[in-house]
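User: Is it possible to get a 3D structure for a protein together with its bound compound? The compound here is copper (II) ion. I've pasted both below.
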Amino acid sequence: MPCGQTRTRAALLVRHLTICVIAILPIPGPASAQPASSLKAQAPAPPEARPLPRAPKHPLDPLTASEITVVVEALRAHPEVPAQAFFPTIALREPSKDEVRAFKPGMPLRRDAFAVVFDRPSNRTFEAIVNLRAKAVTSIKEVPGAQPLIMLEEFDRVPPLVRAHPAFREAIRKRGITNIDDVQVDPWAPGLLDPRTEPRTTRWIRALAYLKGKQNNGYARPIEGVVALVNLTEMRVERVIDSGVSPVPPQTADLDERAIGALREAPKPLQHVQPRGPSFTVSGHEVRWQKWRFRFSVHPREGLVLHMVSYEDQGRVRPILYRASLSEMLVPYADPASSWSFRNAFDEGEYGLGRLTDSLELGTDAPRHARFSDAVFADDLGKPMTVPRAVAIYERDGGILWKHFEYYNGRSDSRRARELVVFSLVTVGNYDYGFSWIFRQDATMELQVVLTGIMLAKGVDTNAVSTHNGDEVESRFWHLVAPNVASVHHQHFFNFRLDFDVDGAANSVREVNVRALPRGAENPTLNAFVMEETALGTESEAQRDLNLATARRWLVVNPDVRNSLGQSAAYLLAPGENAVPYLHPDSPIRQRAGFVNHHFWATAFNPGEQYAAGAYPNQSEPGQGLPAWTRANRSLARQDVVVWYTFGITHVPRPEEWPVMSVTMAGFKLLPVSFFARNPALDVPK
Ligand SMILES: [Cu+2]
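Assistant: Yes, that's possible. Here is the predicted structure of the complex:
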């Protein structure tokens, strides 16, 4: 969400209904024959021959619905778990890497679950571990001061409270809105807290207002200047802040075809068919395709996660990444107005991104020939909920893979590329984020974040023109996108945690910079430039930023594995679009989101370090996550290296992005460097 954050009650209801209905009804189209979590790519057997897997087969398989039930029963029976406790997170507790690497099919599985337990009335948070075999809680400890993510239950509870509050009703009435039921109330994590009036010892949430009426899209008509502050600990409205009336935008902006009006002529059909089935296989949660092997899961907080990514090279399965996941996001808005300055969404840690995974729509969100996998999460009360078609796996044409036309004899050699895409999509309030992991035949990988949805809107008086340096401007903080609708400048930051294992765990980190040589004996013809590699030997040395002037890149190297040319095997992190944060270094938000201070970080693996802004970013203290961990300044030489890559998008809104944004993408690539001794895609047949 850019633009935003939260999921409205209505949206939640729709989503829940969708889940219930789809879980029961057969899915139309080719995938209907396919229970998603038993993806079998090759042989299209009849559906009854493909039962859903009931038991996990691998130590990294996510928790099943029945396992979640066992976890919750064990927790509920434990004397330290309060009777009314919520479970904001229940997920697999991954076994140690040694245990996972040593696993062979058929071996007994260790199955532990990790749970966050929250007692709202006493505002106490606990972390528990449940041993599924013993059906028992093996550890439970309080985490003082931690505020778990905002729960869906709270998104449902808050709007009626706010709508019933006299000051809120008065603020709405002042804006000429007579029916309070027309008002959509959108909860937001509190963002900035004023310690004098908003102590961290209380659980808070804020709520924004929109005029929705009978429309589907309330986000088009913000009721500007009205923000409710809700005390969740006592479940009451603390106060309603009315910072002044702005016009409510007059135009509705639903996105269905009836509301849009005249449609253009549809293009003629373009079909992607795979008459002999896909070229990948999916076994449980393991995918194999064109020499790639990896596992995937959908984590309730991180969303789509890749595990154990490796590439088969002449019979040898060579590891590249142990785990790759989104570790945190930050979406700060540029408007200093009091009703806007708190809007800084840690979309993953404050809202539990994974649990907001959408059920992908056939033919639009993902191609009809995709294979799909469901995801299973626990809801706030620990009840298993299934998101059908949470992950799509499909092949697509990749354009030219390689080509050469030989002038001297007229011969052309070329190959067509195929790509494998693993895709998942989340909706956080007004914004929709897709995540594509793309695998290519030349052993390169790419992560693409897909941004779409509805920009966060501000109601403005279009006649109120301000001046800056003598020029009339609409505003320095936003751009007008529709009558009385402005979209505030903002940024989206993503941090990906990349736990590399390049040919094994003992890796080192190097930075690559390109530099022009000065005029002199080495450069008499003034064309010389060199590539320089620098070891980043410690965690403090490995806090780095992009540099266009030096074409800066980073390598994760295995110094002990060499190709036939004698070079060390490595994978290169190749940045795509990026940004620097415009939040002041002293801003309280940036203090809580230290991961945005550098594009590149590397740490020595520690299983407790998973989230770049810390485990509990909601109402967090400054300095959590990467800034805290890297103070240890551990060595990165021949260590189990974890790279944390931050990339950002600076979003200056355009009217063409209203009322819905066409997809924009950002991300990064991972490229082999001397991992092979020649082009690994040379063997792709014509
Ligand atoms: Cu945006």
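Confidence is low (pLDDT under 50) at residues 1-53. The two ends are 43 Å apart (CA to CA).
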